[in-house]
Write a structure and sequence with these properties.
- The complex is a heterodimer of chains A (392) and B (247).
- Chain A has 392 residues and is α/β, with parallel strands linked by helices.
- Chain A has 2 domains: 255 residues, no CATH class; 111 residues, D-Maltodextrin-Binding Protein, domain 2 (3-Layer(aba) Sandwich).
- Chain A has a 4-stranded mixed β-sheet.
- In chain A, helix 13 runs antiparallel to helix 14.
- The radius of gyration of chain A is 30 Å and the shape is elongated.
- In chain B, helix 3 packs across helix 4.
- Chain B is α/β, with parallel strands linked by helices.
- Chain B has a 6-stranded mixed β-sheet with strand order 6-7-8-3-9-10, with helices on both faces. In chain B, strands 2-1-4-5 form a 4-stranded antiparallel β-sheet, covered by helices on one side.
- Chain B is globular.
- Classes of the chains: A alpha/beta (392), B alpha/beta (247).
- At the A-B interface, helix 1 and helix 10 of A face strand 6 and helix 3 of B.
Chain lengths: 392, 247
Amino acid sequence: MTTFNQFQLVFKKEALSLSRDRRSLVISIMTQLFLFPSLLLFIGYIQQIQTSHAEQVTITVGVKQQDQSNEFVQFLKTQQQIKLSTKENLTAALKKSEVLGVVEVQSKADLQGDTYQNIVYLFDESNNDSEQTSGKIAGFFEQFSTKKREQKLTALQLSEKKLVPFDFSTDTLQARAKTSSGALLAFLLPYMMILVSVQGTVHYALEMTVGEKERSTLATTLLLNVRPSIIAFAKISLTLLLSTLMLVLQVSSLLITFTVFHLASSLSVSLNFIQALQIMVVMLPFTLLMSSLMILLGMLARNTKEGTTYALPLSLLAIVMSFMSSLFDTHTPLFVFLIPIISQVAVLKQILIGSFIWQNVVLITISCLLALWITVSTVSKMFSKEAVLFRV
Amino acid sequence: MLEVKHLTKIFNKKDAHTKTVTQVGVKDISFVAQPGRICGFIGANGAGKTSTMRMLAGLTQPDSGQISLYGQPYKNLKDLKKKISFVSAETQIFDRLTPHEILSFYGQLADIPQKELEKNIDELAEKLEMKTFLDTRCAQFSTGMKQKVSLARGLITQPSVLIFDEVTNGLDIFASQALKDIIKELKADHRIIMYSTHTMPDADELCDDVAVIHEGMIKAVGAVSELHKKYHTTKIHDLFFKIIQPS
């Protein structure tokens, strides 16, 4: 029997055994299929509610010293969503949430003695509606101000273009997240993908290593007429295959959710087929590395409890490193892309906002594959060490 | 025959202060097990029985000394694990597979042709009375049923050496007797059988030869009848205490 045939048989036996652990398998698949879609749909839903609420809500505002700003008050009255309050004590009414904001108009004189109006909008930061509508009021004021400026310039027979010779605005090469939900998602998605990859195959890796020690079947496995390194390789290969499948499920479910629910427009973070492929290219070596690390931890542990204890610092490290990655920008030194997790999050963010820098991806892949090779070699060696196999 | 010469195994263990200390598992042990006879390996817990059995099974390596099978040192033997079967409390069966799947898996890895393998599985199932649960997953089996599957797993490759380490532990009286009857039958196949136990009545019932191990060292070895004659005993229980506590 060839080495490959032996590998095939051991692999098949391990796969058969794992496939019969239906509950764990179903939970893993469901997590990959539904975790991200639920998250995306939830954020999308919240975004939609906030938008429609902001569009529909009637903003009740009070105006102090209305007589000084008759024009602005008239302008506000013409806006459909604005209702002016007739309350006497407007500050108290704002505190009681009876009005969402108070417009205070003060007349001031400039150095030449001409009067001008200083308008202050007072809102309650502890009231979500009050805070959100402040932007809308600022928008109304901007419209009013523009209209007034145009009127004055027309009266003076001047064009605004003559006073302001050029416009200035900023833009980026990438699609920028325009909404707060989009920005949150651009941060949250890579971070969660890393966590899911770290945690995704913990169960299977521990099951095939320390689980066997615990069930006293490791010695039974080692009695096989096969070299221990082949057994180790079959176990690692199965874990790697599972983690790859989980990754494909994860990215596919993301892609389907983005496409079916047209989330790109509402969340301003895009995901198309090419981006999904790019994510897989970036995540695959990392996922493989994480699963082989889990196998290594499983080998070192005496029991499953100890194994999960060993896996915890790795998860915490992933969380801390993911957060650290938010500190990096486009000027991040290249060596950073050799550090797994940090680089993964940074590149995933770039992909989600529509940028794929292949030099970074090559560096990530090389560093992950190198670490993977070291881990797999260590696991294979450890599988022949009786001190590790028979630790009690 | 299975010959063990000056076998020593040392373990590194941690003390209360997590300092590594060395502990002798077995020290300079030598004995011979003959085919067609059951060689008992008796001793108290921690005497070094399992350490020796693991080395005989090829699961661990000795620090010094040599084990040879029919004159061939273990390290020179090709397909060693095909020739040796090890059944013990630490060689449990794969719970999620059926006995048929387990036997088929071990048989295929031992390169037994498919037709012959199916025939062997049928015969073993018949002999060990496993036919009714051959295609049922092992998870729900009783200890006795699991031990039968474990034994069948050990026999499927038709090994020339059978090593049993505390196999009757945890079995009820019926399962234990059934297992011992099977071991007696296996003796007739001219195999080398090692039977490690601390249950002296079991050793009385099964063993032709015996090696008494105490604190990692062999204190006496030979045919049971000769040892009884030498120490003026009739039961292995008495023999054991006379050997380890001469006063």
